[in-house]
Amino acid sequence: MRIFRDFAGLPPDARGAAVALGNFDGVHRGHAAVIAAAAEAAHGRGIPLAALTFEPHPREVFRPHDPPFRLTLAEAKAEALAALGVEILYQLPFDLGFSRMPAETFIDAVLAAGLGARHLACGPDFHFGHKRTGNPALLATLGPAHGMGVSIVPEAASPDGLVWSSTAVRDALKAGDCARAAAILGRAWEIRGTVARGAALGRTLGFPTANIPLGRHLAPRLGIYAVEAGVASADGEIVWRPGVASLGLRPTVNPLPEPLLEVHLFDFAGDLYGAAMRVRLHAFLRDEARFETLEALVAQMHQDATRARALLAGG
User: Which positions are catalytic?
Assistant: First the structure.
């Protein structure tokens, strides 16, 4: 997949696509339906399949002091879109200046003149332009005048009524419901980051951990999780290993000011400091708790590890 961070001066082969529009945070099954609508138009017309999104997420610009809420950062989002068949990603920089662009100008200057889009697809809640005055109805009204077809994809849900939305994923994660989040996403939710050095307390207790700051990721329900962690091997392939992780403020020893993901990999003794790691949350085991003694903490950690092994093995 090719990524472009400007809508002006694109090469000819990066213009004239069927373009899916949205923030695509999480790239869940509802987003996949929008991509599929754009893909249908792309295949029918023999043109590339593209997606247009914004970085950073507009909410991070308008509400910079809110707690982190992102489900996928730029790299993970791009990979998930590529997995859905997107060939071209327009990852447009978003700031207050861009936000002041009138909705009609966005259609004229960005979608038509800049991208030369031949078809647009979006969900029913896609808004754009100054004060969010642009909406799917405006696209449907003005798009054809620029030679752009428009597909408005209804809100998607599973047959049992589970709504496929980014908000629904966030709600599930905040409740510790990894299965519900995965059902909406179509895959286990994951946190990506670089392994940071810590106090090495886990190693002292017999549970060495790889510490991952959450950064701009959403903080799910604090507690203990059964996880899989992926690290690139020497040939670049991701090797996935089962483990157990603590996501929290470490209330028993050396409390933390903000949540940290501490991952213990089963049957692994390598050095991971500085490595890029992906951690998939598969099951919530329990809330974090403060223990009166280190012995009590270690005993509970053994119980957590045993339960995580069983869950990940399908037990």
Answer: 262
